[in-house]
Amino acid sequence: MRAVIQRVNKASVKVNNQLISSISRGLLVLLGVGKGDSEQDAQYLADKTANLRIFEDEEGKMNLSLIDIKGDIMVISQFTLYGDCRKGRRPSFANAAKPDEAEKLYEFYVSAIKDIGLEVKTGIFQAFMEVELVNNGPVTILLDSNRNF
């Protein structure tokens, strides 16, 4: 699994011009599920996400987690994180999980975040979404359950 984690002041998602959800200070997570990913991958990323120390403490150092600041979190499914652009000009999504498997692991990740004690906002799986955000910092972190980065 792959995640692009952005520290935000606010974020929102719309489907068909209708607001689906919004958050204030916290994390916007774009989550991609790859072929062969498992619940263990989702659990690893959920724990890493919730405990990632990327919020500033009183000394201005990135030392606090989402849990520490009692921040908001929004998780958006994004299969394009598995786009392979090494050949040609059109991305290949051959390494992305099939939608039914991806949805199960996406939901597992969301549940794992909730089990940690955080309220999770989401978009709509497989919908065409418009995501708006105000990145704070900017701070953007890449995570991969295979620890590729």
Written account of the structure:
- The strands form two sheets. Strands 1, 2, 3, 6, 7 and 8 form a six-stranded mixed β-sheet that branches.
- 23% of the residues lie in helices and 38% in strands.
- The chain has a single domain, classed as D-tyrosyl-trna(Tyr) Deacylase, Chain: A.
- The chain starts with a strand and ends in a 5-residue tail after the last strand.
- The model has no long low-confidence stretch (mean pLDDT 97).
- The chain contains three helices and eight strands; from the N terminus they run E-E-E-H-E-E-H-E-H-E-E.
- By secondary structure, it is an alpha/beta fold.
| CATH top-level class | Alpha Beta
Low-confidence stretches: none
The number of helices is 3
Report the portion of residues in β strands: 35-45%
**Number of domain units:** 1
Give the averaged pLDDT, no decimals. Answer: 97
Please tally the β strands and state the result: 8
The rounded distance between the terminal residues' Cα atoms is: 12 Å
SSE pattern: EEEHEEHEHEE
How is the main sheet built?
Answer: 6 strands, mixed
User: Under CATH, the topology is which?
Assistant: D-tyrosyl-trna(Tyr) Deacylase, Chain: A
What is the second-level CATH architecture?
Answer: 3-Layer(bba) Sandwich
Provide a quick synopsis of the model.
The chain is an alpha/beta fold and 149 residues long. Helix content is 23%, strand content 38%. It has one domain (2-144): D-tyrosyl-tRNA(Tyr) deacylase (D-tyrosyl-trna(Tyr) Deacylase, Chain: A), CATH 3.50.80.10.
